[in-house]
Amino acid sequence: MPTPHISAAKGDIAETVLLPGDPRRAKWAAETFLEEARLVNEVRGMYGYTGLWKGNRVTIHGSGMGMPSLSIYANELITEYGARTLIRIGSAGAMQERIRLRDIVIAMTATTLSTPSRGIFRELNFAPCADYGLLEAAVAAARRREVGVHVGGIYSSDVFYDERPDLNEIMVRHGILGVEMETAELYNLAARHGVRALGIMTVSDHLLTHEALPSDDRERSFGDMVEIALEAAFA
Ligand SMILES: O=P(O)(O)O[C@H]1O[C@H](CO)[C@@H](O)[C@H]1O
Ligand SMILES: O=c1cc[nH]c(=O)[nH]1
């Protein structure tokens, strides 16, 4: 049965779903890495493709930007379509000097000011946490490649245009690796529904050095991240 935001038929979504924020990254990744990739959703232009990777069924579906948007897609994918492994393949801004553009950041946990789950957790400071098996497999897959990899805490922000440099300074001082906008709620939802989740990000810009990747440079480095996610999902 289609949902308000996904028109795919029930069996059209795989148990393993990769979630880029950008729907066009979903299209590119499906066309580049999957065999027999088929468009299964385009409601609101949020593309979802299902195909095969080394014989394994995989869906690659956009999540949109920010936790409220990701929450809609992740909820529907899990509760209506039976997704059991959800891996975010995103971009992030680096927050530590040693991290370079194009490096991979794998999120053990995600700090936030708030998430869409705040209303459920209320006074509880729930600690959003990656699935350890996926985390371990993704780190191993990243180490097999010639790419810098960093594993630790990230910041899932509600805003891209942030006006709290004091908060960034505190996070840098507490070892936060980078900032993005979705992983904390993905981890909350995975815990609530008993499924596996991981956030893998490619560093697209640097908050301390102010470097940024030119857009035509991004594809190759994003390719490493997609392959790491696929290898981790089926390890
Ligand atoms: O590249 P994606 O996956 O969209 O991720 C990052 O980019 C967007 C902001 O430009 C936010 O969604 C942030 O989390
Ligand atoms: O959310 C994001 C993503 C990439 N770079 C940032 O600075 N923020």
TrEMBL record:
SUBUNIT field: Homohexamer; trimer of homodimers.
The Nucleoside phosphorylase domain, residue ranges: 17-229
Enzyme Commission number(s): 2.4.2.1
Annotated GO MF terms: purine-nucleoside phosphorylase activity; uridine phosphorylase activity
Binding site for a purine D-ribonucleoside: 5, 180-182, 204-205
Biological process, per Gene Ontology: purine nucleoside catabolic process
Highest taxon of the lineage: Bacteria
Chain positions recorded as phosphate binding sites: 21, 25, 44, 88-91
PROSITE patterns registered for this protein in UniProt: PNP_UDP_1 (PS01232)
InterPro entries: DeoD-type, Nucleoside_phosphorylase_CS, Nucleoside_phosphorylase_d, Nucleoside_phosphorylase_sf
Native source organism of the sequence: Celeribacter indicus
Swiss-Prot/TrEMBL site (Important for catalytic activity) positions: 218
Protein function: Catalyzes the reversible phosphorolytic breakdown of the N-glycosidic bond in the beta-(deoxy)ribonucleoside molecules, with the formation of the corresponding free purine bases and pentose-1-phosphate.
Reaction(s) catalysed (UniProt annotation): a purine 2'-deoxy-D-ribonucleoside + phosphate = a purine nucleobase + 2-deoxy-alpha-D-ribose 1-phosphate; a purine D-ribonucleoside + phosphate = a purine nucleobase + alpha-D-ribose 1-phosphate; uridine + phosphate = alpha-D-ribose 1-phosphate + uracil
NCBIfam families xref list: deoD, PRK05819.1
Keywords, in A-Z order: Glycosyltransferase, Transferase
Active-site residues, Swiss-Prot/TrEMBL: 205 (proton donor)
Family the UniProt entry places it in: Belongs to the PNP/UDP phosphorylase family.
Full protein name: Purine nucleoside phosphorylase DeoD-type
